[in-house]
């Protein structure tokens, strides 16, 4: 707070985004330009654009916040987010590109020739897209209120309006340039401050990340609680705190134990072990399954593959994306770890998502360098909201314009973009209690339980039928959506039911695969007659020109 | 909707390697003069093209030979993808289980950092990239084998 450079940095990122959008508008002339950038984007640009689009608020802010709060067990989030691209590369990238389909509903029609399945897939694309858009807008609202003290809706409305305008006017060609630029901005915005933070840690005589007595406040700190919690103070007193309550701590005082947060060094530093924590192990594997298999089902990820010229290029692009995304994910861990030393108050306030934004100021003081770095991080965070929202909005708008409005015109696409942007904005303004990383994790679980079986079996198994695919999407995806709804609006649960609902992928993904295969085998006569030609089209090398 | 019916864009390549070089006139002074040697080579190339085209037709018309060829390719690519997923499943997916049954492994300190942090926070990303790189190479080799099989002069 009180950093005069933050607002100009955010304004600059927004203006550059809009400017590149308008530059793209001058190039985009036909509907094809709008939807798939006429399929002439080079692999390097495309890979940077995919990376830029993929690294969302959850990656830029959420991962570091989770690590600050929970420690080693949540390192599976960044690993899974990156590994999702490997699964995409191994099972989907090249055949999907060769299918010639533009969206997931298109793929359903190309592969299974069913209009009803297409409608079902459309509904899921829109649901996942909106589920993923809401936390982006919320993240924008929270970040802007953290760094500038503005009201929560300002950031959400700002991002929603900029992105909707940009997508409606420039379409995907513009978005590709914007996304590629934003990948490099996000990497720089985390990497440069990380160097300064590491140097500062050296200069401070390398304070221990996990001191034997638990984390302590380095300076006198007044904490304003943001989320209700139960604190265990050092003298053993147990105290319930409510949002808005102020607590003062002297320099050197230990951080109180907070309910639901890994304060003790052993909880934070070491992985969960068998026997006493079977639910922790189940949750870990569920998370791995959701992130590894969910990436391929995210609508804004898939839509990018149609901008590759052919299947081999799609494969190479995916490999470059994997490298770019992997390089990025080395950084949030560092922020989460240093946050234990420099911003322990976030453990008490519950606003751990703010660690990336607040750490430069907390560690480096009020020098001009520190303020510049803080502004850079805030700009990177905004790039994250803008780029992921743009990608999601483009794909949701594309599906709405072709499948719901039923016209492929540029005007139809613009109208669809406005609809696709307005709905999540209204939701984000009304549901502020959701946790950014948790909702993103649920979106992955829904994608992994609905589109992953459809894509993988559709590409590799001749026996898939339209009824089998529909049953799998309805049962698996439906179960995952039910888990999302219970988590968001249902009663608080405890024990195994809570784990099964909070991390549903470990049971919904196998369920979806089983149902898809079983129903397909029961309806074997519905296998499309042209299955041989379709398989040839999906798998034959590009050079054969078949 | 419209995009689904689009023809698949393909690169302009497709000539057998070396064909272009061999039909090129021998020296700068003979530009524009038809060369007998070049004509012979062209005839040979076009003959090979015919055979390749026939195989393609067989593939496209779903004859039993074509169908078997495609099934073989799909099976090879799927086996490759499954083998590499198994590598990841053991290499990464085994870690939570390993840490759970052998907590001592999780307490090992390397370079002042606990082993799980190094494995997950740093080593996992180069590992994933290496597996991806191996896949791209091997999948392209499978496709090259298939292309060679289809375009082989004598079958």
TrEMBL record, chain A:
Its membrane topology: Multi-pass membrane protein
Q: Where are the transmembrane segments?
A: 6-25, 45-68, 74-96, 117-134, 154-171, 183-203, 282-306, 318-338, 372-400, 412-433, 439-460, 467-489, 501-522
Alphabetically, the GO molecular function entries are: acetate transmembrane transporter activity; symporter activity
Q: Which CDD domains does this chain map to? A: SLC5sbd_u4
Taxonomy, top ranks, is:
Bacteria, Bacillati, Actinomycetota, Actinomycetes, Micromonosporales
Subcellular location per the Swiss-Prot or TrEMBL entry: Cell membrane
Q: Which Pfam families match?
A: SSF
Give the organism, scientific name: Micromonospora costi
- One GO CC term of this entry? plasma membrane
Q: Which GO biological process categories is it annotated with?
A: plasma membrane acetate transport
What's the protein here called?
Cation acetate symporter
Similarity comment: Belongs to the sodium:solute symporter (SSF) (TC 2.A.21) family.
List the InterPro entries hit by this protein, alphabetically.
Na/Glc_symporter_sf, Na/solute_symporter, Sodium:Solute_Symporter
Q: Which UniProt keywords apply?
A: Cell membrane, Membrane, Symport, Transmembrane, Transmembrane helix, Transport
């Amino acid at each position: 707070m009180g950093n005069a450079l933050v607002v100009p940095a955010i304004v600059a990122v927004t203006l550059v985004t809009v400017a590149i959008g308008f530059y793209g508008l001058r190039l985009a002339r036909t509907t094809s330009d709008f939807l798939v950038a006429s399929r002439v984007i080079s692999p390097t640009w495309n890979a940077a654009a995919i990376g830029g689009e993929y690294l969302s608020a959850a990656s830029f802010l959420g991962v570091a916040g989770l690590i600050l709060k929970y420690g080693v067990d949540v390192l599976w989030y960044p690993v899974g987010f990156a590994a999702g691209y490997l699964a995409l590369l191994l099972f989907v990238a090249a055949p999907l590109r060769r299918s010639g389909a533009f969206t997931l509903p298109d793929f359903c029609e190309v592969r299974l020739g069913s209009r009803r399945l297409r409608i079902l897939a459309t509904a899921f694309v829109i649901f996942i897209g909106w589920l993923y858009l809401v936390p982006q807008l919320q993240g924008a609202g929270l970040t802007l209120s953290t760094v500038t003290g503005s009201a929560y809706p300002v950031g959400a409305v700002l991002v929603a309006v900029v992105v909707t305008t940009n997508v409606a006017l420039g379409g995907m060609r513009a978005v590709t340039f914007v996304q590629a630029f934003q990948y490099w901005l996000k990497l720089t915005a985390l990497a440069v401050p990380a160097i300064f933070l590491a140097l500062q840690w050296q200069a401070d005589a390398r304070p221990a990340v996990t001191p034997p007595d638990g984390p302590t406040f380095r300076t006198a700190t007044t904490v304003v609680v943001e989320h209700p919690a139960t604190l265990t103070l050092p003298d053993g007193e147990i105290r319930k705190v409510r949002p808005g309550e102020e607590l003062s701590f002297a320099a050197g005082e230990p951080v109180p134990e907070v309910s639901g947060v890994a304060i003790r060094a052993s909880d934070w530093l070491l992985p969960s072990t068998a026997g006493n924590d079977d639910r922790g192990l189940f949750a870990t594997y569920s998370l791995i399954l959701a992130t590894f298999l969910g990436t391929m089902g995210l609508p804004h990820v898939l839509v990018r593959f149609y901008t590759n010229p052919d299947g081999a290029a799609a494969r190479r692009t995916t490999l470059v994306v994997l490298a770019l995304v992997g390089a990025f994910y080395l950084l949030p861990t560092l922020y989460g770890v240093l946050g234990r030393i420099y911003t322990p108050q976030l453990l008490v306030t519950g606003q751990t998502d703010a660690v990336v934004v607040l750490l430069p100021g907390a560690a480096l003081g009020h020098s001009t360098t520190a303020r510049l770095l803080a502004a850079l991080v805030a700009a990177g965070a905004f790039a994250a909201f803008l780029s992921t929202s743009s990608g999601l909005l483009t794909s949701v708008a594309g599906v709405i314009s072709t499948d719901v409005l039923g016209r492929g015109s540029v005007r139809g696409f613009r109208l669809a973009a406005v609809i696709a942007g307005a709905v999540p904005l209204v939701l984000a303004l009304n549901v502020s209690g959701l946790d950014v990383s948790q909702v993103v994790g649920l979106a992955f679980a829904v994608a992994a339980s609905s589109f992953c079986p459809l894509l993988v079996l559709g590409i590799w198994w001749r026996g898939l039928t339209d009824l089998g695919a529909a049953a799998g999407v309805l049962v698996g995806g439906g179960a995952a959506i039910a888990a999302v709804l219970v988590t968001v609006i249902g009663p608080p649960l405890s024990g195994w039911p809570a784990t099964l609902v909070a991390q549903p992928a470990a049971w919904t993904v196998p369920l979806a695969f089983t149902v898809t295969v079983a129903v397909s085998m029961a309806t074997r006569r519905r296998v499309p007659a042209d299955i041989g030609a379709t398989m040839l089209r999906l798998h034959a090398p590009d050079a054969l020109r078949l | 909707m419209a995009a689904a019916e689009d023809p698949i864009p393909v690169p302009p390549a497709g000539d057998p390697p070396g064909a272009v070089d061999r039909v090129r006139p021998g020296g700068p002074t003979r530009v524009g003069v038809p060369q007998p040697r070049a004509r012979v080579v062209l005839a040979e190339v076009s003959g090979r093209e015919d055979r390749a085209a026939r195989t393609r037709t067989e593939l496209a018309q779903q004859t039993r030979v074509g169908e078997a060829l495609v099934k073989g390719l799909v099976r090879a690519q799927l086996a490759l993808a499954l083998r590499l997923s198994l590598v990841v499943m053991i290499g990464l997916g085994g870690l939570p289980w390993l840490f759970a049954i052998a907590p001592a492994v999780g307490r090992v300190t390397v370079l002042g950092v606990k082993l799980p942090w190094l494995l997950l926070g740093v080593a996992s990303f180069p590992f994933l990239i290496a597996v991806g790189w191996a896949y791209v190479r091997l999948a392209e080799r499978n496709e090259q084998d298939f292309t060679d099989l289809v375009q082989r002069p004598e079958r």
